[in-house]
Amino acid sequence: MTDKLAKAIGTVLGVGYIRPASGTWGSLVALPWAWLLHVIGGWPLLMAGIVVIFAAGWWATGVMTKGKTDHDPSEIVADEVVGQWIALLPLSIGAANNGVSMLAMWPGWVAAFVLFRLFDIWKPWLVGRADRRGDPLGVMLDDVIAGIFAAIGVVLMAGLAHGVLMR
Can you list the alpha helix ranges (DSSP code H) found in the chain? Predict the structure, then answer.
Protein backbone atom coordinates (compact mmCIF):
# COMPACT_ATOMS: atom_id res chain seq x y z
CA MET A 1 0.00 0.00 0.00
CA THR A 2 2.78 2.44 0.93
CA ASP A 3 4.68 1.71 -2.30
CA LYS A 4 1.56 2.22 -4.44
CA LEU A 5 0.75 5.53 -2.73
CA ALA A 6 4.36 6.69 -3.12
CA LYS A 7 4.32 5.80 -6.84
CA ALA A 8 1.01 7.61 -7.33
CA ILE A 9 2.41 10.75 -5.68
CA GLY A 10 5.95 10.57 -7.06
CA THR A 11 4.84 9.92 -10.63
CA VAL A 12 1.84 12.29 -10.35
CA LEU A 13 -0.67 9.53 -11.08
CA GLY A 14 1.54 7.92 -13.73
CA VAL A 15 2.50 11.06 -15.70
CA GLY A 16 6.14 10.31 -14.92
CA TYR A 17 5.96 7.16 -17.07
CA ILE A 18 5.21 9.15 -20.24
CA ARG A 19 8.21 9.11 -22.61
CA PRO A 20 10.17 10.94 -23.81
CA ALA A 21 10.85 13.94 -21.57
CA SER A 22 8.93 12.86 -18.47
CA GLY A 23 10.00 16.04 -16.63
CA THR A 24 8.45 18.21 -19.32
CA TRP A 25 5.22 16.20 -19.10
CA GLY A 26 5.28 16.67 -15.33
CA SER A 27 5.65 20.42 -15.83
CA LEU A 28 2.83 20.48 -18.39
CA VAL A 29 0.41 18.64 -16.13
CA ALA A 30 1.20 21.16 -13.38
CA LEU A 31 -0.20 24.06 -15.46
CA PRO A 32 -3.95 23.29 -15.33
CA TRP A 33 -3.69 22.27 -11.69
CA ALA A 34 -2.04 25.61 -10.85
CA TRP A 35 -4.84 27.45 -12.64
CA LEU A 36 -7.47 25.40 -10.76
CA LEU A 37 -5.86 26.12 -7.37
CA HIS A 38 -5.68 29.83 -8.27
CA VAL A 39 -9.36 29.92 -9.28
CA ILE A 40 -10.49 28.12 -6.11
CA GLY A 41 -8.34 29.91 -3.54
CA GLY A 42 -6.00 32.39 -5.20
CA TRP A 43 -2.27 32.51 -4.60
CA PRO A 44 -2.57 31.43 -0.94
CA LEU A 45 -4.05 28.08 -2.04
CA LEU A 46 -1.39 27.72 -4.75
CA MET A 47 1.28 28.40 -2.09
CA ALA A 48 -0.31 25.84 0.23
CA GLY A 49 -0.34 23.36 -2.66
CA ILE A 50 3.37 23.94 -3.18
CA VAL A 51 4.08 23.13 0.47
CA VAL A 52 1.85 20.03 0.49
CA ILE A 53 3.21 18.59 -2.78
CA PHE A 54 6.78 19.34 -1.68
CA ALA A 55 6.30 17.35 1.54
CA ALA A 56 4.44 14.53 -0.22
CA GLY A 57 6.97 14.41 -3.07
CA TRP A 58 9.89 14.31 -0.63
CA TRP A 59 8.29 11.37 1.19
CA ALA A 60 7.38 9.57 -2.05
CA THR A 61 10.89 10.04 -3.46
CA GLY A 62 12.34 8.55 -0.29
CA VAL A 63 10.10 5.49 -0.55
CA MET A 64 10.65 5.03 -4.30
CA THR A 65 14.45 5.32 -4.15
CA LYS A 66 15.11 3.44 -0.90
CA GLY A 67 17.86 0.86 -1.48
CA LYS A 68 18.36 1.86 -5.13
CA THR A 69 21.46 3.36 -6.74
CA ASP A 70 19.49 5.84 -8.89
CA HIS A 71 18.62 8.65 -6.51
CA ASP A 72 16.57 10.58 -9.09
CA PRO A 73 14.69 8.24 -11.44
CA SER A 74 13.05 10.02 -14.36
CA GLU A 75 9.57 8.75 -13.50
CA ILE A 76 9.50 10.92 -10.35
CA VAL A 77 7.91 14.19 -11.47
CA ALA A 78 6.31 15.51 -8.26
CA ASP A 79 9.37 17.77 -8.04
CA GLU A 80 8.52 19.24 -11.46
CA VAL A 81 5.01 20.07 -10.26
CA VAL A 82 6.41 21.94 -7.24
CA GLY A 83 8.98 23.84 -9.31
CA GLN A 84 6.48 24.75 -12.01
CA TRP A 85 3.97 26.01 -9.43
CA ILE A 86 6.68 28.19 -7.86
CA ALA A 87 7.45 29.62 -11.32
CA LEU A 88 3.74 30.43 -11.76
CA LEU A 89 3.30 32.01 -8.32
CA PRO A 90 4.12 35.58 -9.52
CA LEU A 91 1.32 35.25 -12.11
CA SER A 92 -1.16 34.17 -9.45
CA ILE A 93 -0.17 37.06 -7.18
CA GLY A 94 -0.23 39.56 -10.07
CA ALA A 95 -3.64 38.36 -11.25
CA ALA A 96 -5.08 38.64 -7.73
CA ASN A 97 -3.60 42.10 -7.12
CA ASN A 98 -4.89 43.45 -10.45
CA GLY A 99 -8.25 41.67 -10.51
CA VAL A 100 -7.61 39.98 -13.83
CA SER A 101 -7.89 36.42 -14.99
CA MET A 102 -4.69 34.46 -14.59
CA LEU A 103 -5.31 33.05 -18.08
CA ALA A 104 -5.14 36.57 -19.55
CA MET A 105 -1.51 36.65 -18.50
CA TRP A 106 -0.60 33.99 -21.09
CA PRO A 107 2.85 35.36 -21.97
CA GLY A 108 3.75 34.85 -18.32
CA TRP A 109 2.61 31.23 -18.47
CA VAL A 110 4.86 30.63 -21.47
CA ALA A 111 7.80 32.38 -19.79
CA ALA A 112 7.28 30.45 -16.53
CA PHE A 113 7.14 27.13 -18.36
CA VAL A 114 10.16 27.77 -20.60
CA LEU A 115 12.30 29.31 -17.85
CA PHE A 116 11.52 26.52 -15.39
CA ARG A 117 12.34 23.81 -17.94
CA LEU A 118 15.55 25.69 -18.86
CA PHE A 119 16.76 25.93 -15.25
CA ASP A 120 15.65 22.37 -14.43
CA ILE A 121 17.54 20.88 -17.39
CA TRP A 122 20.58 23.20 -17.30
CA LYS A 123 20.95 22.98 -13.48
CA PRO A 124 23.04 26.13 -12.99
CA TRP A 125 24.70 27.04 -9.68
CA LEU A 126 22.43 26.27 -6.70
CA VAL A 127 20.15 24.06 -8.78
CA GLY A 128 23.06 21.76 -9.62
CA ARG A 129 24.37 21.88 -6.07
CA ALA A 130 21.00 20.72 -4.72
CA ASP A 131 20.80 17.99 -7.38
CA ARG A 132 24.23 16.66 -6.39
CA ARG A 133 23.04 15.99 -2.82
CA GLY A 134 22.04 12.56 -4.08
CA ASP A 135 19.10 12.17 -1.71
CA PRO A 136 15.30 12.64 -1.81
CA LEU A 137 15.57 16.19 -0.45
CA GLY A 138 17.99 17.09 -3.24
CA VAL A 139 15.54 15.70 -5.82
CA MET A 140 12.90 18.13 -4.55
CA LEU A 141 15.18 21.09 -3.79
CA ASP A 142 16.77 21.37 -7.23
CA ASP A 143 13.32 21.93 -8.73
CA VAL A 144 12.36 24.35 -5.96
CA ILE A 145 15.43 26.43 -6.74
CA ALA A 146 14.85 26.14 -10.51
CA GLY A 147 11.28 27.33 -9.85
CA ILE A 148 12.54 30.30 -7.82
CA PHE A 149 14.98 31.24 -10.60
CA ALA A 150 12.15 30.96 -13.15
CA ALA A 151 9.83 33.06 -10.94
CA ILE A 152 12.50 35.76 -10.71
CA GLY A 153 12.83 35.62 -14.50
CA VAL A 154 9.04 35.95 -14.89
CA VAL A 155 9.00 39.02 -12.63
CA LEU A 156 11.90 40.62 -14.50
CA MET A 157 10.30 39.93 -17.87
CA ALA A 158 6.95 41.32 -16.67
CA GLY A 159 8.73 44.43 -15.40
CA LEU A 160 10.43 44.86 -18.75
CA ALA A 161 7.22 44.30 -20.69
CA HIS A 162 4.95 46.49 -18.58
CA GLY A 163 7.45 49.05 -17.33
CA VAL A 164 9.44 49.69 -20.49
CA LEU A 165 8.01 48.13 -23.64
CA MET A 166 4.30 48.99 -23.13
CA ARG A 167 4.80 52.63 -22.08
Answer: 2-10, 22-65, 78-98, 106-122, 125-131, 136-160
Q: Is 69 helix (H, G, I), strand (E, B) or coil?
A: coil
Give the amino acid at 68: K
Closest CA to 50 of 83, 12, 96, 13: 83
User: What DSSP string runs through 97-120?
Assistant: HHT--GGGGHHHHHHHHHHHHHHH
- The whole-model pTM stands at 0.96
30-44 in b/e form (b: 16+ CB < 10 A) is bbebbbebbeeeebe
- Reported as a single tens digit per residue, the pLDDT across 21-69 is 999 999 999 999 999 999 999 999 999 999 999 999 999 999 999 999 8
Quote the CA–CA distance of 139 and 62 in Å, as a whole number. Answer: 10
With CA atoms as reference, report the closest residue to 120 among 85, 76, 155, 150: 150
